[in-house]
Design goal:
By secondary structure, the protein is of the alpha/beta class. It is 47% helix and 11% strand.
Length: 340
């Protein structure tokens, strides 16, 4: 039994006594406690793949920051790895795939991910649920197929993702074949997260904004919609960074909540998505401001969402050099300013 189910009620569109709040990337480098755990290990992947430690850093923001939900500490790139494409996490640079998908033969060498290969994530969820003891819900997550596809083709982060985008024009059939495999892998993975105890699911489409609208509909939203159709056990949130023009189409997909980045207009989103809960969307850079600034921006954000079903968050992940006290103050502001 959950002692704090504010986020689940807000996701269902129910009235809540105050606005629930959590942050993308809340478990991570902003917390000294996280850095202490991370320092004792060989690297990021060891932390992701060690259930007891992944659970520990998942719970840290609940204890330290006072957020209304935990989100399991993992990485979206566990899916391509389980499909047969190994990644590395390079310090100061981010993810890197030593081998990328360049041809149909490379896809032949891959498989639809077997959830057994991702048991460390499910074990981390089970441990986290036990240790949380009902204090707050636990969010599970995965990357959207287009975002995962982009990394598998590109080999890492990119300003343009031109290799991934080029394939959509050069060989759309090959692109759709890989996207289908990623989608099938993701559905199985998320269902096992729910079985392990995840109370909500979020799908992150980090590179949504690099596609033009027509291609986004064909090569991303179509596959996100398939995932949403398959997940009916718990509420699903879709966060598509940069895809403001796709909001009307998101009204028709079977998710409960739509996340907004900091460039999206809450007033417009309320009109377009009147059947959805909204999540977001404070500019992460606002947390570099004074407490007075943070309070002002938080109040402005809350007023913009008004009485629409709503979960407070940032418009993207919290930046690693943000002062944890500023983050905590933001969370306190949401709680105090939104209470009825």
């Amino acid at each position: 039994m959950l002692k704090n189910d504010l986020i689940l009620r807000a996701a269902r569109g129910e009235k809540t006594e105050r606005t629930p709040v959590w942050l993308m990337r809340q478990a991570g480098r902003i917390l000294p406690e996280y850095r202490a755990v991370r320092k004792s290990l060989s690297g990021f992947k060891e932390l992701v793949e060690t259930p007891e430690l992944a659970a520990e850093v998942t719970i840290q923001p609940v204890d330290i920051l006072g957020v209304d939900a935990a989100i399991i500490f993992s990485d979206i790139l566990v899916i391509p790895e389980a499909m047969g494409l190994t990644y590395e996490m390079v310090e100061q640079k981010g993810p890197h795939f030593p081998k990328t998908v360049e041809s149909s033969k490379d896809i032949d060498a891959l498989k639809v991910a077997d959830p057994v290969d991702l048991s460390y994530v499910f074990d981390a969820i089970k441990i986290t649920k036990r240790e949380l003891d009902g204090r707050v819900p636990l969010i599970g997550f995965a990357g959207a197929p287009w975002t995962i596809f982009s990394y598998m083709i590109e080999g890492g982060g990119s300003k343009t993702f031109s290799k991934a985008r080029r394939l959509l024009y050069a060989d759309a059939e090959m692109a759709e074949r890989l996207l289908e495999m990623i989608t099938e892998s993701t559905i199985g993975y998320l269902k096992k997260q729910i079985e392990a105890g995840a109370d909500m699911i979020q799908v992150f489409d980090s590179w949504a904004g690099v596609l033009p609208p027509e291609q986004y509909s064909q090569f991303s939203l179509k596959y996100i919609s398939k995932i949403c159709d398959a997940i009916d056990e718990v509420p699903v949130t879709v966060f598509a960074k940069g895809a403001w023009w796709a909001l009307p189409d998101m009204a028709d997909i079977d998710c409960r909540t739509v996340g907004l980045d900091w460039n999206m207009n809450p007033h417009s989103a309320r009109k377009i998505l009147n059947n959805k809960t909204l999540q977001g969307n404070l500019d992460p850079c606002a947390l570099y401001g004074s407490n007075e600034t943070i309070r002002h921006e938080t109040e402005k954000m809350l007023n913009a969402f008004g009485d629409h079903p709503y979960i407070a968050n940032l418009g993207h992940g919290v930046y690693p050099d943000t002062d944890p006290q500023k983050v905590k103050y933001f969370i306190e502001c949401v709680k105090n300013l939104s209470a009825y």
